[in-house]
Specification:
Elements: E1 2-6, H1 14-25, E2 29-35, E3 54-56, E4 66-70, H2 74-85, E5 92-99, H3 106-109, H4 111-121, E6 126-131, H5 140-151, E7 163-168, E8 179-181, E9 189-197, E10 203-211, H6 226-233, H7 238-243, E11 247-252, H8 259-266
Parallel strand pairs: 1-2, 1-5, 2-4, 5-6, 6-7, 8-11
Antiparallel strand pairs: 3-4, 7-11, 9-10
Length: 275
């Protein structure tokens, strides 16, 4: 399989080296295009007002992996790879392995998810994969899971472009109980801005804070049929699944239309327009 690998942690991150190596060992044709430095939490930003530079990287990956370092964002990397660097389109885009979870509302900010989403927007199936710890755990279980998933020819390449957001518990492989299809939860943060002074005495701020547990069920309360809400309620959230030491697989889309609210507004159940 022809695979494009990207990330938001940068070209020298252990996660992308582990993933790209595992895919190449499994016999896939692997091209790496990722940022030249860490670009975490950059979302789906694109570079519009300055040049994007790319250069071939040697001695970081195996000799059979063609790797490029890009000065742009994660979304830039995939867009550039598809539009200029790769001779033929890939069968799948894989972004990661991210060092840290991308659960719940993390996906709005995530450069890892945005790189994969860029592939889907170009009509290519994509996977975003993250290890749910910044400080511990091996990337090997996540890399092995992706290789096993892609080896299942009944499922890949996918019949239609889809983004699978995969999070892997940061525990030993023997402690992972399996994998589950999940829905997106809500992950909240206590944001804190630390006020500091630079050596010249000028004030600057550093965003800190920490994630808190899922506080509510994210199912919509408006506009959805009761039977649909019941069916969705039976599917665990990504955060719940990770707490239970299962791999979480959540399908995502770039259409952000609030379907329940749309139906309520269009059918007059929640009047908004005058008259």
């Amino acid at each position: 399989m022809n695979i494009l690998v990207s990330n938001d942690d940068g070209i020298f991150a252990l996660g992308i080296r582990t993933l790209a190596t595992a895919l190449a060992v499994a016999g896939h044709q692997v091209t790496v295009v990722c940022p030249d430095r860490e670009r975490s939490a950059t979302g789906h930003g694109l570079t519009m007002h300055k040049p994007i530079r790319a250069e071939i990287i040697e001695s970081v990956f195996r000799d059979d992996i063609l790797a490029w370092s890009c000065s742009g964002t994660p979304a830039d990397c995939v867009k550039l790879a598809l539009g200029a660097l790769m001779a033929t389109p890939p069968d799948v885009v894989v972004s990661g392995i991210n060092h840290g979870a991308n659960l719940g509302t993390d996906v709005v900010y995530s450069g890892t998810v945005s790189a994969a989403m860029e592939g889907v927007m170009e009509g290519i199936p994509a996977i975003a994969v993250s290890l749910t710890s910044f400080t511990q755990g091996s990337f090997a279980p996540a890399a092995d899971f992706i290789c096993d998933l892609l080896a299942d020819r009944d499922r890949f390449p996918l019949a239609a472009p889809m983004l699978l957001n995969i999070n892997v518990p940061a525990v030993a492989a023997a402690e992972i109980k399996g994998a589950k299809i999940t829905r997106q939860g809500i992950r909240r943060y206590f944001d804190q801005f630390e006020k500091r002074l630079d050596p010249r005495g000028k004030t600057y701020y550093w965003l800190a804070g920490e994630a808190v547990e899922e506080l509510e069920d994210p199912l919509p309360s408006q506009g959805w049929p009761v039977d649909l809400q019941t069916s969705l309620g039976a599917i665990p959230t990504d955060m719940q699944t990770i707490r239970d030491r299962y791999i979480s697989i959540t399908p995502l889309q770039y259409n952000l239309t609030a379907v329940g609210d749309l139906l309520d507004l269009a059918q007059g159940r929640r009047p908004l327009l005058p008259g």
